[in-house]
User: What shape does this take?
Amino acid sequence: MELYELTIHQAHNALRQGTISSVELTRAVLERIEAVDGRIHAYLRTTPQDALAAAEDADRRRAAGEDGPLLGIPLAIKDVLSTAGVETTCASRILEGYVPPYDATVVARLRQAGAVLVGKTNTDEFAMGSSTETSAAFVTRNPWNLDRVSGGSSGGSAAAVAADACLGALGTDTGGSVRQPAALCGVVGLKPTYGRVSRYGLVAFASSLDQVGPLAKDVMDSAILLGAIAGHDPRDATAADLPVPDYAAALRPDVAGMRLGLPHEYLNHGMDPAVEAAVRAAVAVLEGLGAEIVEVSMPHTEYALPAYYLIATAEASANLARYDGLRYGLSHPEAPDIWEAYRRTRQEGFGAEVKRRIMLGTYALSAGYYDAYYLKAQKVRTLIKQDFDRALEQCDALVVPTTPTTAFRIGEKVDDPLQMYLGDVFALPLNLAGLCGVSIPCGFAEGLPIGLQVLGGAFAEATILRVAYAYEQATTWHTRRPSL
Assistant: This one.
């Protein structure tokens, strides 16, 4: 096994035993990036000098007696998270050249844990997209098939993990943007409960929906990463002041005595038959491990997509108003007046999908339409949250597909926004409810990965990780790697 193929927990064991050094591990990952990223385009930029310096520091810390699951581990960061001294653009022209003077809280916590940050990964522009095709830089390709999308908006992070171009990564999930690319790339993607992880330093898309989450090669690694980034942060008023469990220690290879709900609304006629078959087979595996499977109903699921695209775009319209070309990023100082400077900056700086969402959100918030659209969407959001609450009163977690299809071809849906949005139909209801979910590999169709979601209640990450781990240990899907 090559060093870059190791999981985080395998690498930690090797580092602790002294059979490898962090410098050796980091060099192996950087060489892997050099070898494969010209084909998959997962990274917007890498930081090899900083990474090797951090690796040397990690080796010194370990030699001095320090230890930790992330000490000396090479990780990647989605380019919507602020990194001190490293350009952060959100894959948008409007932020070209912007170098934050501070780290996002999650980045600071990884650094404190001794992690080695090797680069910033590609994303849909401002995390607005489902395929990484809206990036102003380039499209990230799926390591399993280079003609297919990697998913989005955290497609760069998912592709990097799948291609062994890092040992783990951070993404963000506003409407499925960690779980959907994880499913399409055959890795594990975790969306924590809203408030479980600080959003300080995350460039905002939709503030009531955004949440930072890890992408990893297996469930144990996801638990380790979540444990490192979770917890209260006084700089984020929405970060919950609750203790952080030892997620890794809570993993068990069985689900005996657990009740798992199967909402029939998530198994609809628009799903690829191969995906439905893989999900039903995964449910049967969980039943064989001792879980009781119960059918539940979530009747407002069909309204989640329109409600999401009103709420998310409205919040995006407000959040992106700050990009005016006066303080940072793209600027047009030669414009004759401030209004023309605004127009030119935004016209040239924002891509088509971002402009589409700003216009939708501005319209939904406009006088005469606020009650008809935005307010009604918020009421639907409450009904969806109540659906989850009722379903989770009957069971410990829910099991559903992550996506209705496997990865589609690059360019196939880019001119049809509605079809693109429908790809998130099984993922985005969870964001409206503010709850937690994890996507794990559960099969393949024509050589492309399929994902299974385990959804849980507020701050029930330990529960969903236990279910995911039990399934993972009983199957071999997570051990498969694309050949690049």
Notes: The CA atoms of residues 194 and 434 lie 5 Å apart. The mean pLDDT is 96.
